[in-house]
Design brief:
There is one protein chain. This protein is mainly alpha-helical. It has a single domain (about 5-130), classed as Orthogonal Bundle (Arc Repressor Mutant, subunit A), CATH 1.10.10. It has helices at about 5-20, 25-35, 40-50, 75-85, 105-120, 125-130; strands at about 55, 65. Strands 1-2 form a two-stranded antiparallel sheet. The two termini are about 25 Å apart.
Length: about 130
């Protein structure tokens, strides 16, 4: 199980880097500084722009900057953009309809862990990471 995917990781690193810079940051600069392959970085930035996390500027001197304050961008929000709904509490038998769903002890225990995890993730912002 992977809690944070590669795209989420790249997005978080890019957002932290952009948040530290007052100027517009180019794709080339992010690729060079973060060591992320250009095609991945472009797709990630485009997606963040569509979701209104970033502003984009075209042409010479163009690039990206944060649309919101880094204190207002939460890790859980970025995870949802790139991973969809993050769920730890799936049946280990990979069954959608489980006859034991209501009384499964493991499911209940993982549910408690999941609740605590999301509570913590909801408090982490780009500002706290940068």
């Amino acid at each position: 199980m992977k809690l944070i995917t590669r795209n989420t990781d790249y997005a978080l690193r890019a957002l932290c880097y952009i948040s530290k810079n007052k100027n517009i940051v180019t794709v080339d600069e992010l690729v060079e500084k973060l060591g992320v392959p250009r095609p991945f970085m472009r797709k990630i930035l485009q997606r963040l722009n569509k979701r209104k996390i970033l502003d984009s500027f075209k042409g010479q001197g163009g690039g990206f900057r944060l649309k919101a304050l880094p204190e207002k961008i939460y890790v859980i929000e970025i995870m949802r953009i790139f991973q969809g709904k993050v769920v730890l509490n799936r049946c280990f038998l990979k069954k959608d309809v489980c006859p034991n769903k209501g009384k499964c002890v493991l499911r209940k225990k993982i549910g408690i862990i999941e609740d605590n995890l999301f509570k913590q993730l909801k408090e982490i912002t780009i500002a706290s990471l940068a």
